[in-house]
Request: fold
Amino acid sequence: MAQRKITLQESEIPTHWYNILADMPNKPLPPLHPGTHQPIGPDDLAPLFPMELIKQEVSTEKWIEIPEEVRDIYSIWRPTPMYRAYGLEKALGTKSKIYYKYEGVSPAGSHKPNTAVPQAYYNMKEGVKKIATETGAGQWGSALSFACKLFGIACEVFMVKVSYEGKPYRKIMMNTWGGTVHASPSTLTNAGKTVLEKDPNSPGSLGIAISEAVEVAAMNADTKYSLGSVLNHVLMHQTIIGLEALKQMEKAGDYPDIIVAPFGGGSNFAGITFPFLQHNLTGGKKVRAIAVEPTSCPKLTRGEFRYDFGDTVGMTPLIPMYTLGHNFIPSPIHAGGLRYHGAGAIVSQLLKDGIIEADAINQTECFESGLLFSGAEGIIPAPEATHAIAEVIRQAKQADKAGVSKTILFNLCGHGHFDLGAYENYLAGKIIDYEVAKEDINASLAELDTPVI
Amino acid sequence: MAQRKITLQESEIPTHWYNILADMPNKPLPPLHPGTHQPIGPDDLAPLFPMELIKQEVSTEKWIEIPEEVRDIYSIWRPTPMYRAYGLEKALGTKSKIYYKYEGVSPAGSHKPNTAVPQAYYNMKEGVKKIATETGAGQWGSALSFACKLFGIACEVFMVKVSYEGKPYRKIMMNTWGGTVHASPSTLTNAGKTVLEKDPNSPGSLGIAISEAVEVAAMNADTKYSLGSVLNHVLMHQTIIGLEALKQMEKAGDYPDIIVAPFGGGSNFAGITFPFLQHNLTGGKKVRAIAVEPTSCPKLTRGEFRYDFGDTVGMTPLIPMYTLGHNFIPSPIHAGGLRYHGAGAIVSQLLKDGIIEADAINQTECFESGLLFSGAEGIIPAPEATHAIAEVIRQAKQADKAGVSKTILFNLCGHGHFDLGAYENYLAGKIIDYEVAKEDINASLAELDTPVI
Reply:
């Protein structure tokens, strides 16, 4: 019987996160103050984040120790399994070898708790009583509610209204872990009120919800803010995925030629690829790292590299990023976690420098791939994760066409238990693709008055 | 850092199921033909089941080999983790040690695939093209759809109408794996039509859905029937849980004083307890094995031990069981998987002989326990699983009161991702308990004209 699953013991959970900043040939440009456009310092971030996370955000140390309390909570679901996808390989009839790391085994059902847990921990250690955050499809809000519950602090979540109404189970999941959830835009913040004055029926967006959560944190001394992707420390926490995958690949006696991950703000992609890219950057083995975004939100493949806000209202620092403009409203695709206008500073710099690659795929191809996967491997993937699967299938077919065998690894970042409505629509032939016109991207970018790089 | 999770490698998946029939001091009485009331033989069951499963149903061999193809599919989610519940212990302030085996990591989210996979496999091997089955809350129907998809055979599911309408995600999950799902009672069978003639608005029941599925299998040569609990071979397949738990307990350097599991038809309970009861029955260490049922469906604690049908219409063989009468309609509690009128023959005989124990708990106590658990351990349990948690808490408190420390193991049989509506009701104070009047049980039993034992 061929081994399907490569398992690690609890004692093999990595003890340090990997900080790719230490190895990057060109460091990202600094974030700028939204008002002065000058580089910001730790003090500017202190109202929003605990000092330890601010230190991690700017650290260039290569390895950052994971606190024992965090590793203890990680052990609820970590180490996560890595699979050899024999079923998918057979269904494709490919000569390539396909592996995937499965992050859906966490209580919240995705990779998000990997950073929610340390973020809640450092806040708790510094006496913070409450964390405010935003959530789109609900993955991040439930991960942070879970983490806050375990460390005994409160969690307040601004959930994009269209998801709040369409995904009630995600909201209840947060409630079950003690989280308070508001539909965003809300009347609880000036940011929310401003949006509602212009459009009382606003369906909300991730950018608006971020503005609301940042405002709550800025206005309350005992409350901090937390972000589930984009920022350097968030990406670093996620490297636990790739560090485990490195060990598992070694146990499998293999090494990937290609690593694929879905791309929203960058944390999922960074998590699995950075520990391997370490070797690319330090003269070791080379992998191709491919970030997969939806064609309807193509910041990596069609965006501009410049400074932009992380939110809609313009309250966050300016970040050097590939962006579609912070006012860009992506079409209502089902992969809610990938509907974000920009990319984190580190991943943007890596793309700029040609160290990573990007591809964009339509959601019908993704759902088709997800359904093939669930029938072949048994696990129903989240819509976000199907973007990686679709790319893996493209790469395997290309390799077969070229008569070669590749070793491909991807991040199956979450299960689709709360996305079955989307699969129902797909099975009923109701899923459509959205083209983004060049003029729309240009118009959105033309609205920016942020510094060009 | 104390070890939280006891993990096994894929190579440690057990190679044989344990058949407790070999060790029972009193074997269960034989099943009877529903018409003649004579003991049935293999030929009577041949229209419904493949021959290998019929052999397993009557086998008294102690160990039955697990086919390699089945172990290969098992390896998608097995071995499952066993946890030391440090969080729950701390929340209770108990001196007792609590462990749980977590079966919610399977693709269908419960222990049900442990038997769905071998059942689909043996059917496939004997050339069966389609399996018909029933499902209540949807756990079993999704497990069998998953298994049938992997072995390339069709699956037709009769889903209790009230769940079909109230739990659409479970239905879509089955569709995603290629299963065909009908609301039961349906107009596709005589059994369904008969029920609908009497009551066009019938919400359905597990007993009715079984009648429909059995009829479809009996009327179609290429179609067999499959049951998710109650029968001997089903309970035996589930012993994979306890066999792994034995190894994990050994690794933890511990052995349980008490094992607790929820009780519907018996498969979940049998799965975790039988491999330990083996030692009780053969002169080894003794454990207390406690089956926990809802007070609203109390066949073990308040039912009668006699022959009864497995279904409502009276198409199945008569089974010697603790029963509330096959016409008993349990109140609409949220633990749909525990709303069944009878218990399997083996577990009934073990209870009769004082080898196992039973307890009944109200659902409000169960939800309270489930919520405490999810906050302390991170995993949101299925309503069925909360019955075990509530009993564990009772036992730990009793031990503390007596000034002793017990080692308690329970089966966390599934996650609650599709039951969050129930948690919402609980959080809103809308969950109520149901008392079953003595007269109602007596009236239901008085309707039986089946043989008394």
User: Anything to note?
Assistant: The mean pLDDT of chain B is 96. The radius of gyration of chain B is 20 Å.
